[in-house]
Each structure stands twice: as structure tokens, then as C-alpha cells.
Amino acid sequence: MAEVHDIDARGARHCETTALGVLLRHEGLDLSEPMLFGLGSGLSFIYWDAKNLDFPFLGGRVRPFDLTRNLAGRLGLDLRVQETTSPRKAWADVTAHVDAGRPVGLQLDSGHLDYFTPKVHFGGHVVALYGYDGHEARLVDTAQQGGAVTTNLTGLARARAARGPMTARHRSFTLSVPRTAPPPESRIVPAVTACAAVFLDPPIANLGHRGIEKAAKLVPTWLRRTDDPRRDLPQAAFLMEEAGTGGALFRNLYRDFLAECAQLVGDRHLRTGHALYTEAATLWTEAAALIAAAGELGDEQDLVRAGNVLRDVSRVEREAMRALVRLEDGRAPA
């Protein structure tokens, strides 16, 4: 077994931040998962419905790997990305890093991993690989999936080769921390304001606060959108609360990021944003519970109530981001 030593194999709540944490701790940079998520301007929202989808999808973060790119750019990290259509070269790229003593991140389709539950296909899943032999690989995934896990190489190859929404061409990546990298706390304001600006002024109506408002209007129609409400509505609620989001569609992570920032920066706009995202997180969990109940009981009134909650969410998050974007004007009096 070829293996990178001194790996801190903590599984966190979200896949991409879990992998980033493993890679950066190996480089000597230990940041909390909320800090990784927030410095990567990871928070977003999308209401996604298309002809090829069986049911609408509510997404709460930026596109897969954008968080990694954002974080690397903001912290001055050396991000090396490799992609190829050749499975043989893709595996050689990965093993070369491990043989050199460095863990490597992989983007793949979680549905092909033998340990992964539930068996759903998601092409934007990210893991850290730190060991391998002729039969299996050693990975770090989320705490929900077991943290430090092993998977057979056949399934791993299928997961990396999968094509479809949000997949990449056998993408692997490494991170290193240059000596000239700025202190993470110095990058808090740019990270917060960049995230807020995009959220407040989305290019299309199904993104950002406008997307949440759109969801508020459309969620009450979901019983008419599905042939199997007992499957689709609880599944939508599960994806909001349990599927690597950290709860409340990533709002718990962003709430905790803002709390950590407020301790470091001491800004009243940050404290306002934190208070409002604490409220928003509670509302998202309430909306998910109502959506699940509607699927189980078939009562459209639960969806009407969920729509009303989401309307409140849109207002609360808009107010939060309006406060947070003002950090561009300089630190407010404490």
C-alpha cells in the first residue's frame, strides 16, 4: 500500500470542504470547515428545473469546484488541476502525487463508490485520496459517509469516468501554501463582499435571493409536478438537510462562518449578517420539514406554508447580504 503519512482524516459536513481541509492541513494550514466554505464564497442559491430532471432541485452553494478555485485565488494558494479523457493517464496522475507524499483531491460521481449511501448519482462529489494498492484506494469523505474510508479501484475508475451534469474529465487537484500567502483573516472582507454582491445581483431569476423568491412561488405547485410525491418531496427535503449541506441548505455553515468572522473582525455589519443568517438557517430547516410532510401526507397546504417560509427566507437573506456587502465601505464602528 502506497500511502501519504501524517494525514488528518477528519470527515466534515460537506464534501468539497472536507477534501480541502485534508489537503490544506497536510500543508500546515488548518482552517475550520465554515471558514473554508466562507473564504471560498461558497454560499449561493439556484432553483433548477429542466426537461431532463424528474423533479426540481434546490441548490445552496456555488457550482462544484468553484469553491476550490475561489479559495485558492483568495488565499494565494498554488492550485494544480489535471484533467484528461484517458483513464490510464488519470490514474497515473493520482498515483504520482501519492508516491511523492502528497494527498490529492478528486471530483467524481458518488453513485459509483461502493461505500456511498444513499446510492444517488452526483457528478460534483469531491474526496481526498491518500493511499492505494492494487485493489483499493484510501479516501477521506464526509463524516456522514464514514470519514476515512476505502473503495475498490473498479468503482473509483467508474466514478471518475462518469459523464453527465456537473461531472469533470477525471479531474484531480493538489494544493500548496506559498510562504507569501496572505493571512486568511485578511481575506475575510473580500470573501464576504464578493459573495454578497453576486447574491444580490444574480444574472438570472432562478439564482440568489431572486431564485429563493421564485422557489417560494413554485414550491406550492410541487404536488402537481410529481407522479410520486412520497418519493420526490422527502428526497428534496433530504437533499436540503442531510446530503452534505451541513443542514439548512448550507446556511448553517455560512452562519458559523460569519460567527467566526465576527470574532476576528469585530464589525457590526458582520454581526447583523450573522444574526440574520441564524434566522435564515432556522427557516430553511422549517421549509424542509414542511416539504417532507407534504410528500408523506399529500397535503398541499404544507407546500403553501413552505412557500410562505421561503418568501421570508428571501427577505431575510436579502437583508443579510445588504448588510454584508457594506463591508466594502470599510469596517463599521464596533
TrEMBL record:
Report the superkingdom from the record: Bacteria
Cite the Butirosin biosynthesis protein H N-terminal domain residue spans from the record: 14-142
Where does the DUF4872 domain start and stop, copy by copy? 155-324
> One Pfam family from the UniProt entry?
BtrH_N
Q: What is this protein called?
A: BtrH N-terminal domain-containing protein
